[in-house]
Specification:
Layout: H1 2-16, H2 21-42, E1 50-53, E2 55-71, E3 75-77, E4 83-88, E5 95-96, E6 101-105, H3 108-133, H4 137-204, H5 210-238, H6 242-270, H7 281-345, H8 349-374, E7 377-379, E8 384-389, E9 396-397, E10 404-408, E11 412-419, H9 420-423, E12 431-436, E13 443-458, E14 461-470, E15 482-499, E16 503-506, E17 509-516, E18 519-530, E19 535-540, E20 547-550
Antiparallel strand pairs: 1-20, 2-11, 2-15, 3-10, 4-6, 4-9, 5-8, 6-7, 8-10, 11-14, 12-13, 12-15, 13-14, 15-19, 16-17, 17-18, 17-20, 18-19
Helix pairs in contact: 1-2, 3-8, 4-5, 4-6, 4-7, 5-6, 6-7
């Protein structure tokens, strides 16, 4: 539109002859530049991306090859999987119609597996239906009751923690109160010990000999020990801080050890040859008793210190356990509350996709086992006649052994050689699209009638001969004609498909980029069957009509 306007403007300017050629050129350049800017401003992100719209379509897998029309030969029919033959339904010479059952092999294992997958499909379908239907009022009431119960449980755990902390405070307070009494008792023992030792010194050791000097030194140390013990007890009583008491306990324990050492010195001197006969047994007994008393006091102080330590450890353990129970109750309440929120909110698209994927997987497994079950029966690949029966009921047969020899009724077949990797996905009865070179505008249908179990080496590559019957007679068909064949190994109709190139690998999963409201978003995508021409089935994550961003 802008270019058209610029052309009109140029014509006008030339007609009026009021503008020079440079003015005209300048205006044209300006209009072209403006037109380019306008296009950039009006261009959306979609215009810059390679977009493919997800759509419902059919998907199939095919094996393509070239075949030759030949006169139909006798064909050996076999089971895909070995086993024990439990039924042969035909006799030699009997004419049969395509699809008729000819023989059956024992399929108990496959049947049991199929029943199991059938149950899995029903269970997955029921779970999906229940998810889509949403929670019942009974479910909501039950979930609400669980939330209330979890709240009560949490409250009880909090009350229990408060009680445990209160008990812990009382226990440690009691332990320290006992320790103050132990300090007082220890001081009194030291005090009495000093008095008893001082009396003995004044009674027996008033001389200036070595023994008397040693005794007086010991008495002096006992007095200093007594004074230190008094200070410690006084500080503990006046300042009842737990740390101060603990320090006093540790120090008075050392004082008791010192006092005991001085008593040992005094008692040894009392047994000296110069004094043992002079000092009465009563006074000796007084010092012995003092030693025992000091030792007992030291043991009491040690036990008191240990009691305080064990009480602290027990308190920490009990409180930690109670706090752990609270955290567990909080997590439980959080999980139960979230479950209630999910019930009230209803199913999310993500949850529905997950359950749909589970159902699709169960159906795929059922389909696989149904296919295996179908291979437990040999069916007539086309109308024809039973020529020979090679095996008997009850006989074990391998997967490649001929059971029945069959002669097709129709005179022509197509023979082709299929590469070993492709032949593994073929089975008798697969539909075939046939394009004859002699009839280029016509596509006819056929059916795989036999797969030769014996390999054929062509230029060092392993192939297997496959025979294909025509579904309908074709006029003017002749032996030796060339055919392009496409054997359909699997097919799904009316499914959601996108190009496989749109899939991005992410830690073993697939992501797909989707353009939504001029913004590219990534969605986790569940895929199913891969088909020809680079297309893939989408089970979840993408919807019909989504704009898929291709690389």
């Amino acid at each position: 539109m802008l270019l058209a306007q610029s052309k009109k403007l140029v014509k006008f300017l030339f007609k009026t002859k009021k503008r020079g050629v440079f003015v005209v050129i300048g205006l044209i350049v300006a209009l072209i530049v403006f037109n380019g800017i306008y296009k950039k401003l009006t261009t959306t992100i979609e215009d810059t991306l390679n977009i493919h719209v997800a759509e419902i379509s059919d998907l199939k897998n095919t094996v393509s090859e070239i075949g030759i029309v030949k006169i139909a030969d006798e064909t050996g029919l076999s089971f895909k999987y070995g086993g024990i033959i439990n039924n042969i339904y035909v006799q030699i010479g009997e004419k049969v119609t395509r699809g008729d059952s000819l023989a059956r092999v024992e399929s108990g294992e496959f049947n049991a597996q199929y029943q199991q997958t059938e149950a899995s499909v029903k269970s997955a379908q029921a779970q999906l239906d229940q998810l889509i239907a949403g929670a019942t009022q009974s479910d909501i009431n039950l979930a609400q009751a669980r939330v209330e119960s979890a709240k009560v449980n949490l409250k009880n755990k909090e009350i229990s923690l408060d009680n445990i902390k209160l008990d812990a405070d009382l226990d440690i307070e009691s332990a320290y109160q006992d320790s103050v009494e132990a300090l007082n008792s220890a001081y009194l023992n030291i005090y009495n010990t000093h008095i008893d030792a001082d009396l003995i010194e004044r009674t027996y050791f008033g001389n200036f000999d070595q023994e008397s000097v040693t005794i007086r030194s010991a008495i002096s140390r006992l007095e200093a020990t007594k004074n230190s013990a008094n200070n410690l007890v006084t500080n503990a009583v006046v300042d009842s801080d737990y740390l101060n008491i603990s320090t006093s306990l540790s120090e008075i324990k050392n004082l008791l050890i010192n006092a005991y050492g001085d008593l040992v010195i005094i008692r040894d001197i009392m047994e000296n040859n110069g004094y043992t006969a002079t000092i009465s047994s009563t006074n000796k007994t007084i010092i012995d008793t003092a030693k025992t008393t000091i030792n007992t006091a030291r043991a009491t102080i040690t036990n008191t210190i240990q009691t305080i330590a064990s009480t602290k450890v027990a308190n920490i353990t009990n409180i930690s356990s109670a706090e752990a129970l609270i955290r567990s109750a909080e997590r439980s309440l959080d999980e139960i509350s979230k479950s209630l929120e999910k019930l009230l909110a209803g199913p999310t698209p993500e949850n529905i996709s997950i359950f749909e994927a589970r159902l699709a997987q169960a159906k795929a497994e059922r389909s696989m086992l149904a296919n295996k079950l179908s291979t437990s029966i040999i069916r007539a690949p086309s109308d024809g006649q039973v020529v020979r029966i090679e095996k008997r009921i009850g006989e074990a047969v391998g997967g490649a052994q001929t059971v029945i020899s069959f002669l097709p009724e129709k005179p022509f077949q197509i023979e082709t050689e299929i590469y070993e990797e492709d032949v593994t996905i073929l089975k008798i009865g697969n539909p075939v699209e046939i394009s004859l070179v002699a009839f280029p505008d016509e596509i006819v249908m056929g059916t795989v009638s036999s797969i030769d179990p014996v390999e054929k080496i062509i230029n060092g590559v392993v192939y297997y001969k496959v025979s294909i019957d025509f579904d309908n007679e074709i006029d003017e068909l002749k032996s030796g004609m060339t055919a392009d064949i496409s054997i359909i190994t699997s097919e799904e109709k009316d499914i959601l498909v996108i190009p496989e190139s749109a899939l991005l690998k992410n830690n073993g999963n697939y992501l797909t980029k989707v353009l939504e409201r001029n913004e590219v978003k990534e969605y986790e995508t569940e895929i199913g069957m891969r088909g020809d021409e680079g297309m893939v089935e989408i089970l979840s994550g993408i919807n019909d009509g989504d704009k898929i961003v291709l690389p």
